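FORM 12-B: Structure-to-Sequence Request
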């Protein structure tokens, strides 16, 4: 795909005019019952800030014994939401059959989920079924961090004549420790935007975070990086949701979250560059803090080992080895010994404080709070 073919995409502002940014998509992860759907939609409509109502009818679940969506029955409920609230409706399609059903029912927008974007056969099947329609389609990134696969899915839709296309960033599966359900890896959507500046990119903080408390920060990061829309899952009673309960929020909390966001204006070039650099610094600091917290947990594990084996806390040889090796590594990275002294002393003092607490005051490892996912 080249710049020219992407330029054929019709900008959102042309087919959905008058919507202030960010364009907001919300609704439950899954369509569960007609009542759940309608009550959520009524409250979302009342916020006045939601532009498109989402609801998953067919749910691609990791394990076969999870709730896999209500299926066809949900189509009519979604259509009723539109009739009653006036909100346009969107759902995920993963096959030609889904596409046909949704086109016939009058859905306003369709999206391709990340588990489908990975599969060119499925994307092609969907693209073929969409041929001749001018419905807008959102293409979520593939679950794996493969930019070419994401571009390929967009290209397949374009070749089927779809011109209202939006890319949606929802993070990437990650093997290892991360606070996110799906690691943002912002460099990938940034790479997409760099290659295709006219393509609009939305963000789905819900599936990136997997938990409510991180949503606002990720949504803000997305806006700070110039993403022009957000998809945030909401549910009338999130804790009772049949899927993705931990990441859904009430319509009321959605409104609070949206009102807390800073929508950046277009700065003059120099200042815009500054804002981008600063948000990069914020993310880097956040990563550093998570690593430090992870290191402290390890120091605590060692504290328990020392307690159980009657070993002294302060091991001078080890401490001196840490100081020497780290100072050497740091030098190669352009960090001064003076800085490293302050940093290592602080780190060591805190580790000793935690181990001392374990040795003298903590009664049992079992009573310790659960180790955080970091
Ligand atoms: C969803 O939006 O409900 C969903 C399943 O998302 P994703 O494809 O990003 O996992
Ligand atoms: Mn979900």
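FORM 12-B RESPONSE
SEQUENCE OUT:
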């Amino acid at each position: 795909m080249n710049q020219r073919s992407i330029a054929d995409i019709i900008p959102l502002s042309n087919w959905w005019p008058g919507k202030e940014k960010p364009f907001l998509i919300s609704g439950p992860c899954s369509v569960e019952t007609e009542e759940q759907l309608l009550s959520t939609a009524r409250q979302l409509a009342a916020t006045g800030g939601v532009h498109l109502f989402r609801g998953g009818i067919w749910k691609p679940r990791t394990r076969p014994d999870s709730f896999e969506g209500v299926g066809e029955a949900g189509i009519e409920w979604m259509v009723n939401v539109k009739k009653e609230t006036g909100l346009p409706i969107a759902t995920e399609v993963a096959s030609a059959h889904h596409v046909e059903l949704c086109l016939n029912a009058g859905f306003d927008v369709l999206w391709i989920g990340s588990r489908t974007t990975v599969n060119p056969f499925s994307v092609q099947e969907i693209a073929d079924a969409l041929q001749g329609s001018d419905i807008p389609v959102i293409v979520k990134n593939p679950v794996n961090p493969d930019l070419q696969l994401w571009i390929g899915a967009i290209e397949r839709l374009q070749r089927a004549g779809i011109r209202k296309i939006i890319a949606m960033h929802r993070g990437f599966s990650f093997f290892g420790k991360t606070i996110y359900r799906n690691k943002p890896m912002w460099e990938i959507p940034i790479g997409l935007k760099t290659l295709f500046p006219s393509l609009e990119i939305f963000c789905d903080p819900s599936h990136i975070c997997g938990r409510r408390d991180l949503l606002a920060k990720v949504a803000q990061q997305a806006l700070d990086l110039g993403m022009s829309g957000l998809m945030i899952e909401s549910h009338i009673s999130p804790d009772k949701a049949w899927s993705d309960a931990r990441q859904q929020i009430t319509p009321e909390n959605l409104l609070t979250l949206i009102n807390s966001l800073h929508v950046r204006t277009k700065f003059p070039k120099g200042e815009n560059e500054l804002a981008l650099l600063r948000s990069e610094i914020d993310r880097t600091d956040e990563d550093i803090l998570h690593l430090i917290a992870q290191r402290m947990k390890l120091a605590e594990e060692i504290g328990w080992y020392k307690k159980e084996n009657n070993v002294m806390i302060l091991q001078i040889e080890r401490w001196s080895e840490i100081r020497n090796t780290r100072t050497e590594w740091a030098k190669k990275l352009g960090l001064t010994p003076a800085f490293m002294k302050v940093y290592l002393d602080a780190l060591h003092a805190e580790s000793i404080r935690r181990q001392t607490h374990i040795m003298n005051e903590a009664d049992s490892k079992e009573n310790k709070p659960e180790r955080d996912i970091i």
